[in-house]
Structure formats: structure tokens, C-alpha cells
Amino acid sequence: QQQVKQSPQSLIVQKGGIPIINCAYENTAFDYFPWYQQFPGKGPALLIAIRPDVSEKKEGRFTISFNKSAKQFSLHIMDSQPGDSATYFCAASIGSGGYQKVTFGIGTKLQVIP
Amino acid sequence: KAGVTQTPRYLIKTRGQQVTLSCSPISGHRSVSWYQQTPGQGLQFLFEYFSETQRNKGNFPGRFSGRQFSNSRSEMNVSTLELGDSALYLCASSLTGGSTYEQYFGPGTRLTVT
Questions:
Q1: Among A13, A62, A83, A93, which residue's CB has the most CB atoms within a 10 Å radius?
Q2: Whole-angstrom Cα distance, residue A102 to residue A73?
Q3: What average pLDDT does the segment A60-64 reach?
Q4: B42 to chain A: which residues are within 8 Å by CB?
Q5: Residue of A41, A95, A106 with shortest CB distance to B42
Q6: Which one is predicted more confidently, B97 or A101?
Q7: What's the rounded mean pLDDT across residues A19-27?
Q8: For chain B, what is the HEC assignment?
């Protein structure tokens, strides 16, 4: 059962464009929504994260938009650069018994062409 | 501070064999989680260890097992390997989990089963 649905699975944009990656979740108990960036040959690295009481969060060129009523959240990359080419994973987690169980989306392979 | 290290980085095994993968978390981190990453399934949670105890487990068969030592280092074992076990195995460490669950991933072990 895929609890976090991520789309698209691949995305090609030109340098300077604004790629948008969308995720949808089903379980309203999720209370933490991180995004990870993964380069080939490396493990995923935490990029930015949001909690459901906030509708938007920006860190540099990366912005998360969160729609609690629609159970959707998305990642926008402003002024995208070829160095942003990577696979991006959204995730959702639930606090349970003092720790969190994390569910990942399928991933989006982003290519930014010069 | 050193990051999460995983050994070996690459491994080739034959069907029916068993394999042990190792993960050293960031110093001071007590939680270690293991994930299987494949192109079709994304990141699938295997299990999490905290203070030498498995406190969360994903939906994988009993052939997949793990343990954690008193220094927080963790090992994952897969017995009776199948072709479908070929994947990138990632471990991630975090301080304790809790309400700010930030995971730091290692580079992974690429397992190929022939």
C-alpha cells in the first residue's frame, strides 16, 4: 500500500525553470513531511521539511507548499540549475511512541538542462 | 563530524548465499534505520534499531534481519539470497527519532545477486 504518492517520476526542465514535484498522502496522522535529494552514488540528504501547521516554507531556492485539507504537498525549485539534477523523494512520518516511522514517495528524477 | 559509513560499498553474491552489511552511525546517534532502494519500489523501510532493540519493522520476509551493538553500530543480514534482493541498501541514523526526526543517510551498499 503506497501511502505517499509522488509525481511525476521524471522531469526535464531548462535552466532557470521552476520544476514542481507533487506528493499526496492518505493518512491524516502524518505530522512531518521532509524532502530528500539524492545524487548518483550517494545516499539521500535532507533538503527541507515542513509540519502540517504551516502552509509554506522556503529555504534558499527550495519551497514546500502544503495543503492540509487536500492532503497534498509540493516542492518548487526556483531558478533551477544543472547542479539540481538529482532524484527527489518526498516523505511523511508519524510520531509514535516517541519515534517516527517514515514512508517515502517513489522518487522524481529531475534533469535540468543548460 | 564524520557521516554515516556503510561497508562494503559493493557486493556480488550468488543466489542462496547469505550476506551481512554494516553501518556505523554518526557519533552520538542512537537510532539506525535500514532501507532497501530499488528503481521500481523506491525506498522501502526494513527496520529500525534504537539502543540495541528493534522497535519498528517493515514488511519484509524473515530472511532479512538486523541487530545493533552497544556502540550503536548496526548490521543487517539477508539469508538465502534471491535475485530480487538486488538493490541499494541504505542505512540512516538519527539522534533519537522523537518529534524532530532528521535522518542522515549513508552512501549505501550496492548488492547484486546473480
A1: A93
A2: 16
A3: 97
A4: 89, 104-107
A5: A106
A6: A101
A7: 96
A8: CCCCEEECCEEEECCCCCEEEEEECCCCCCEEEEEEEECCCEEEEEEEEECCEEEEECCCCCCEEEEECCCCCEEEEECCCCHHHCEEEEEEEECCCCCCCCCEECCCEEEEEC
Q: Is A84 helix (H, G, I), strand (E, B) or coil?
A: helix
**Cell numbers describing residue B103:** 535522518
Nearest to A93 among B4, B101, B108 (CB): B101
Phi, psi (5° rounding) for residue B51? 50, 50
- State how far the Cα of A92 lies from the Cα of A105, in Å rounded to an integer: 8
Q: Which residues of B touch A (CB under 8 A)?
A: 4, 31, 33, 35, 41-45, 48, 50, 55-56, 90, 92, 96-108
Q: What is the pLDDT of residue A75?
A: 98
Mutating which of B101, B105, B109, B110 best tests the A interface, going by the most A Cβ atoms within 10 A? B101
Question: CA nearest A85: which of A114, A106, A112?
Answer: A112
At A66-81, the pLDDT tens digits run 999 999 999 999 999 9
Per-residue confidence (pLDDT) for residue B97, from 0 to 100? 56
**Residue B27, pLDDT score:** 93
